[in-house]
Amino acid sequence: MKGIHQSSMAVRSFIVMACVVIVLAGIKAASPIVVPFVLSAFLAMICNPAIRLMSRFKIPKALSVLLLMLFIVLLGLWLASLVGSSINEFSKQLPVYRAQLIEQFAWMLDKLQSFNIHISRQKVLEYFDPGMALSMTTNMLSGVGSVMANLFLIILTIVFMLFEAQDMPKKLHLALDDPDMRLKQIDKFLHSVNQYMMIKTLVSLATGVIVGIGLSIIGIDYALLWAVIAFLFNYIPNIGSIIAAIPAVLLAFIQFGPGAAGATGLLYLGTNMVMGNVIEPKFMGKGLGLSTLVVFLSLIFWGWLLGSVGMLLSVPLTMVVKIGMESSQSGMWLAILLADNVEEAEDKMSALDANPLPEATLLTNENDVKKDNGPE
């Protein structure tokens, strides 16, 4: 009997994994449709607090949504204009930057020649091409820009989501078989994602402003572009700030030498340490309870599945999965693996033992019935 039970569990696990693979393959194939929808959902979450704030001042909801959509359209057009003009100007200045780079490395090449180590200037340009200063960021921005090409579809989706925002939680409660048990879980999910997106947006905005002002003081070219990139890449956990800093530091080295490059690196490091380790935890509390390894792996996974937008939204998307697993008895093991530390995992197990989830209760009742009736 025990062997049959283990065999059925193995078959069920295999079926579940096969279904997951099929679903992921479908999402990957349908990414041109899925990505704009996901982006619209999270933009609606960011806009929803502003709608509630304007409603306190007796502004009609339709007018509030119209004003927000107008702001998003103007912001998207401004961002596209900024990136396009900056890339064109950078391309024109590329020969100048190449010459400046050779000048900065001249002392090092002379020093190496004194030790009978000869390196041609062409080799230096191959490994330290100034064009690399924009290669990473333009690839990322082009991915986001391709999604924004569907701006009209995204705007319409956001509008409908904002109008449905108040009724959606009630519909979810009614759609569930046991709304009383799931009520707190749905509210926790909506509150957590809304809180994360709002705080992360404000922190990213402050990061971009500080970086932009600092780079302007140092005198780095395209300071506004690097500030926008710092704002966007701050959504990417752990390595986002590093990626955003690379082109600015390289350009500072080309323009002014090692001193300016060091100052630029310290600017990024200090800003992200203060914002990431002081300001953000203060307003977000303990955060959303994801381990550092999970955050990094989620960045890779969602980036592969949904591209640039998936990387920007990797943490909230992983949080959606985590909270969804916490509301299911069969998925609690995955929520525990995604937890930040052992203490949080133990708390989840203690809470589960004290208040079993509906699926656990249902499973227990079925086992009791089988015991009473005897083996079939």
From TrEMBL:
Q: Which GO terms describe its cellular component?
A: membrane
Which sequence ranges are marked TM in the entry? 9-27, 63-87, 140-163, 202-233, 239-269, 290-313
Keyword annotations for this protein, in alphabetical order, are: Membrane, Transmembrane, Transmembrane helix
What name appears for this protein in its UniProt entry? AI-2E family transporter
Protein localization = Membrane
Q: What is the lineage of its organism?
A: Bacteria, Pseudomonadati, Pseudomonadota, Gammaproteobacteria, Alteromonadales
> Which InterPro entries does the record cross-reference, listed alphabetically?
AI-2E-like
Q: How does it sit in the membrane?
A: Multi-pass membrane protein
**Which biological process, per GO, is one annotated for this protein?**
transmembrane transport
**Matches recorded under PANTHER family:** AI-2 TRANSPORT PROTEIN TQSA (PTHR21716:SF64), TRANSMEMBRANE PROTEIN (PTHR21716)
